[in-house]
Amino acid sequence: MSDDALISTPLYTSQQVKAAEMRAVEAQSCSLFNLVQLAASAAFELLKQLRKTNQSISLLAGNGNNGSDTYVLASLLLKEGIKAQVMSQHKADLQPELRQAQKNYLDEGGTIAPFCESRILAASVIVDGLLGTGLRKEKLTTEMDKLISTVNESDAWVLSLDVPSGIDANTGFAYSTAVNADVTLTFGGQKQGLYTGRARHCCGKVYHAFVGLTEQLPETKTQVLSQCHVSQVLPPRRKDAHKGDNGKVVVIGGDLGMVGAVMMASEACLRSGAGLVSTISRPEHGIMLNANRSEVMFCACEKPDIKVKDRIDWADVIVIGPGLGRDNWGKELFNQVKLRHKPWVVDADALYLLKEQPSYQEQRILTPHAGEAARLLGISRLEVEQDRFSAVEKLYSIYHGVIVLKGAGTLIYDGVKIMVVPVGNPGLASGGSGDVLSGIIGALLGQGLTALNAAILGVVVHGKAADIAAIDGEIGMLASDLMPFIRQLLNEKIIKI
Questions:
Q1: What are the backbone angles phi and psi of residue 425, rounded to the nearest 5°?
Q2: Residue 454 to residue 154: CA distance in whole angstroms
Q3: Given a cut of 70, is residue 137 above it in pLDDT?
Q4: Which of 344, 368, 382, 424 is disulfide-compatible with 373, CB 3.0–4.6 A?
């Protein structure tokens, strides 16, 4: 696979960007105030580009670096004859850059009004310069919480500078309220928290301005995917290809009452190009499985007898977990899979069983959502969501393989690189969507992709299929609604995120 098959952009923590700023200053290539001016100029140009400068603009300035950007932006607006009003709470001990920015704005004839609920609610355009990366890991003050809530209650179009106020730039988590921006313009390096967790709801469209820091930014293992050249990751098939060339996949699951999960995983596996798919499930489910998708082979399992073991040995790849259950039936099948040294995808109830019997294995892809990740780590779901990047690294340190931490802005980690894939929508928050993903990934493994590439392409196709399906609305979208689009996407040359 060529190096440009997956197009991605480096992501940084706020500390890494701050360190880059200080290196730029120490190298005497700029001053901190120069960086503020560059950031404000980028925001000014973006407002013009988006045609928001023909309206009165209300700018909300905090008392940190974000406030400095806001005052300089307000000065630029005034110089162009654009009506701009800054609202802020005065503070005596201002940082030098903020003091200078504020003075320049006042010298331009600008005025500073206190935060006013009625003015915010009546605003047409709001610039959020309240907190940026200055958020601390604690709840907002009552006043700030109310102020942000007022911004969200307004009908204004909102631009957030650097990070929507209330969002943790490093994790994407919101400890209480956060600004719901239409657009976020981030400065220096792109902040890793903007693409996952609560930030996926709050950031709107993300733009980026380097503000002269390109050479100062460090190497980083965290990236956000922006484009996937499918035909390079999954090459077109030879004219003389036969079904045995495209992977034999066994999908294991569907305990009593849960046949739907294994049915969806199996169909998704077929739709993703696996040459042969066999389902191991309860004997009672054979008729239903064959009636639903007759292309799937069926292996009845009352217990893992020689026939079942032969079927597992036959497979190139194993997908286990959809509807597997946590009783002895599922445990016995899980133990059989553990004995085989084959690539396998672990999902749903199989993740529960893995927690009971932790093990290292490199040929394995784990696909937990936040709740399953919490159990695997022995922490709460809230703790996972508070720092999804830390959670995915801890999961790898315990279980190895490739970790796919599902959610808004899925994270994929192989011990070397964290890839953030910002696809999908809330329509995926319904039963069966994870089963479909495990089937897609299993099929891609069967077609010869590495575990990392199978995970990345699987997440891309799954999320983009959901985005296409959501054209008819996110509410009421079913996991099975993704099926027609999986095949379509895998036959595209390029998928843009």
A1: -155, 170
A2: 43
A3: no
A4: 368
